[in-house]
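idk why but the lab printer keeps eating my pages so im just putting this in chat instead. protein + iron/sulfur cluster:
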Amino acid sequence: MTQDELATLDNTKISPRERKFSHLMLWFEDLIKVPVFRCQHCGECLLSSTAFTCSQRCPKRIRNGPCGGTGKDGSCEVYPDRKCIWFLIHRRTKRMNRLAALYDIKKIHNWSLEGTSAWLNVFKRRIDPPIIFLTREQKRKKLSGQDIQR
Ligand code: SF4
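predcted complex ->
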């Protein structure tokens, strides 16, 4: 796997003007994503491959699966009164028959995108599009696990 495949390709600085526009877009995005998904504004949305459960609700902000501290009952290591978000993602993904999508290795989070609009970042091709916007062939590969790097 190359460095490009591990990190967000577009590393160009976001101009102050674009950042302002991004904040405006984020306001619209929040109208849906905060009440429905409890979006944490990471700017690199993963919802379509995590069964529409925001992985960024994890207190450790882990994007590729559980940390290893999940309790036997699926509880979170940091907040034992809550379920581990990756436990919930796994359960929901299984119900939706999309487990293969979880094997897709997520890119290292580009922290400079925090607080920016993920919709705008997709439009600007700064981040990968959600699975629903992939071509039929790309989607088939992703959901069948054929593009998993071993
Ligand atoms: S943009 Fe990031 S924080 Fe917001 S819902 Fe998507 S994955 Fe979660």
